Structures are given as C-alpha cells and as structure tokens.
C-alpha cells in the first residue's frame, strides 16, 4: 500500500494501491510524529488499524511493502463482583440481599406452595363442617362454585335446571317469528281494527301446535 496524500494538520493519511481504491485513515496520537518525520507521500507502507463507528485509525505504521491488517476489537471482560449473598437453597450467587433464593428456586418454591396450600386454604382457615365437598365422592372442593370434583363431574355431570327456561325462550322466539311471517302473508286483510285479535289468534294456534305431543 502506498501513501497517496495527507491532511495539512498531519493527522490523516490517504492510503491505497492507487488513487481509485485509496481510503483516508486517522492517525493514532503516538503515530503522528513518526509519520511527520519518516513517511512521505508515495512511500510504500504497512499498517495496522482498527475501525469503530465507520472510522479507521492507524495504530501502527512502518515503511516497506507488507500485509496491512485490521486489529481485532478487544472485548472488555466484565468482572463479576462477589456480593456475598447466596441462594439459601442451592448456593447460587445473588445480586443483592433483596431475595433469599435465586429465580429458579423461588419459582419452584411458589409451585410447591400452591400444591401444599391447596388443602390448607380449604380446611385450615374454614371450619371443617363448612368446607364444600363433592356430592358424589366427598372429596374437599376448593370453593363452593362447583358441586362435584372434576373426576366425578366427568363421569356424571351435574344436571342443570336452566334448560327448561332456555327452551321456553327459544319456543317463544320461534312462535313470534312464525306470527310475523303469517301477518306478512295476510297483507290486505289486516287493519288496525283486527290486527290485535289476529296476532292473538295466530299465536295461540302455533302454541297449541308446538305443544301437541
């Protein structure tokens, strides 16, 4: 590589095999004086440089043709400071004393507590006589929301009394729809004097038909 040009301040060199492929390089502070005293434009040089944020800086330069190379970035090693705090369960180092257990052990403890506290939530804090129980097998339930435990409800589901009311609602809606369609077909025969009687008559007719067994 050859020195093509330099800045007036002497802190940058344009270096390349020729004018077309030449690039500008900044000079590291220790290199500036050496370049000023020893390197001239047109000299063949060998350099070492590093790049950061698109900026190339020469850290070493010598006269003579050789293999120029980019210096690899040095990774800063982060020293882990010992805090003196450790997980009370497994001994893993903790960041501070905010917690007594590491994340893994703390999560395991929470899961275990959920299982262990299931019966205590139902029996220890509530009088045994008031604890809801499955009506089939008698096992304690978590709350009174259900009448049976999951297994018993799968085998023999709790019957619901809401079916009759729901069926009646569907029946009334269906009859209302049929009455409406019937009135549409009777256009020309319906007026304000007989419409109420017609609706009542048609509704009762459909109701009797549906209720027939």
Explain how this protein is built:
By secondary structure, the chain is α/β, with parallel strands linked by helices. It has 4 domains: 2-70, OB fold (Dihydrolipoamide Acetyltransferase, E2P), CATH 2.40.50; 81-125, no CATH class; 128-159, no CATH class; 172-211, no CATH class. The protein is 37% helix and 16% strand. The protein has helices at 29-38, 103-123, 150-155, 162-185, 195-211; strands at 2-6, 12-16, 23-27, 45-52, 55-63, 69-70. A hairpin with a 5-residue loop joins strand 1 (2-6) and strand 2. The N and C termini lie far apart (105 Å). 6% of the residues are buried.
Top keywords for this entry?
4 domains; 213 residues; six-stranded mixed β-sheet; OB fold (Dihydrolipoamide Acetyltransferase, E2P); single chain
Helix content: 25-40%
Counting helices, strands and paired strands, the structural category is alpha/beta
Reported for the largest beta sheet, the result is: 6 strands, mixed
Cα Rg: 45 Å
Gross morphology? elongated
Low-confidence residue ranges: 114-126
CATH topology of the largest domain: OB fold (Dihydrolipoamide Acetyltransferase, E2P)
What CATH architecture of the largest domain would you give?
A: Beta Barrel
- Estimate what percentage of residues fall within beta strands: 15-25%
Strand order of the largest sheet: 1-2-3-5-4-6
Q: What distance lies between the first and last C-alpha atoms, to the nearest angstrom?
A: 105 Å
Number of strands: 6
| Average of per-residue pLDDT values | 77
Q: Tell me the series of helices and strands, N- to C-terminal.
A: EEEHEEEHHHH
Can you count the helices?
5
User: Number of domains in the coordinates?
Assistant: 4
User: CATH top level of the largest domain?
Assistant: Mainly Beta
